Amino acid sequence: MHTFETHIRSVPDFPKQGIIFKDITPLLQERFTEVIETMCSTIDWSQIDHVVGIESRGFILGAAMAQLKGKGFIPMRKKGKLPPPIIAEAYVLEYGTDILEMIVNEKSARVVLVDDVLATGGTLRAAMKLCERNKLEVQALSLLINLSFLNKFKEEGLPVHAPLNY
After folding, report:
1. 3-class SS at 29?
2. In the chain, what is the greatest distance between 2 CA atoms, to the nearest angstrom?
3. Which burial class, exposed, middle or buried, applies to 54 when counting CB atoms under 10 A from its CB (0-12, 13-18, 19+)?
4. Residues 160, 107: Cα–Cα separation, whole Å
5. Tens digit of pLDDT for each residue in 2-53?
6. How far apart are CA 97 and CA 99, in angstroms?
7. Could you tell me the sign of the dihedral formed by the alpha carbons of 67, 72, 77, 82, in that order?
8. Could you report how far apart the first and last alpha carbons of the chain are, in Å?
9. What is the pTM of this model?
């Protein structure tokens, strides 16, 4: 049994008042290989063509997962970071609004969508819509931490895989 929780730092009032930020930096520093192996363990990789990582911590986790499983990696970035042609999706998150972008995908593929924390789900829902609009069928959602008290993803039957659930 992993004890990842002991390596996660809770930072109150960041990035704004009332938010408790889950800092995974100490966990990645101490247990990175085990984190990646654990995040990969519950996914049916025979159903996955590529890994999509959401900027920025989803890049760290997703790229390592893709490497471990021999899959391609697709970055999903914040607005203005990718060259055209791009496809975009705006969304609301707990502390503001943002836009996610991807380079236009030419052929259909099955993907696992990766990020660090699932809170209210605004970013992840926008990422799912963006994948769908870009010929990418989301087979699994892989998060290091699911703050399940803030979202209904599991109750909605969405394919959430997370080693840490609060």
Report:
1. helix
2. 45
3. buried
4. 25
5. 689 999 999 999 988 888 888 999 999 999 999 999 999 999 999 999 999 9
6. 7
7. positive
8. 16
9. 0.94
Q: Tens digit of pLDDT for each residue in 107-157?
A: 999 999 999 999 889 899 999 999 999 999 999 999 999 999 999 998 999
Boundaries of every domain in the chain = 44-165
Q: Decide if domain 44-165 falls under CATH 3.40.50.2020.
A: yes
Return the H-helix or E-strand segment holding 93: strand 86-93
Residue 53: φ, ψ to 5°: -105, 130
Displacement of CA 42 from its chain's centroid (Å): 15
CA distance 24 to 109: 30
Host H or E run for residue 61 = helix 57-69
Residues annotated catalytic, as ranges: 57, 94
Token pair for 47: 């159903």
Strands 160-161 and 136-146, how do they pair?
parallel
